[in-house]
Amino acid sequence: MSTHSSTQRASIQLSRRSLLKLGVGASAVLATAGLTATLSGCSSDAPASGFQVLRDSDIPMLKAIMKTLVGPHPALNPANLDAAIAQLDKTLAWTSTAAQKQVSDLFGLLSMGVTRGPLTGIWGSWENASDAEVRAFLERWRDSRLDMLRQGHSALNQALQMAWYALPVSWEATGYPGPPAI
Question: Over the Cα atoms of the chain, what is R_g?
């Protein structure tokens, strides 16, 4: 029994060590990618034209994810998708600078090619990602053992769903009359 116990502890320690190595390696890769993007000018903090917070690089990623999250909604079309992205930007503009930075960091990781592939499994551009690929990425993050990925999924899900259902067109198409007039 003591041999089995020490063998089990050794494998647990090895797993912990491997996890720590993976964490350090991933941190180094993300830091290098962020530094490279910043130095090369790939990462712009300037909002896209007509937006207050969202950047040009965020928009294709947000559209791909929102289409998958909303699913086969009768009102989902390109114009309403654009309106929902604009609603998200408006909502983000009213949040604190710290919250905007956190959201921008998350969107940046998902938008930048160097980090998008390893983090999401989507190795090409967001415009070419299929609904199945986006769904697989979202499910992987939702069910991850890593709390950081689960939190990222929750933040994406909540922000994009709120932006979509803030639009009256999303209510009308499903027969919801909207909130009661006050």
Answer: 20
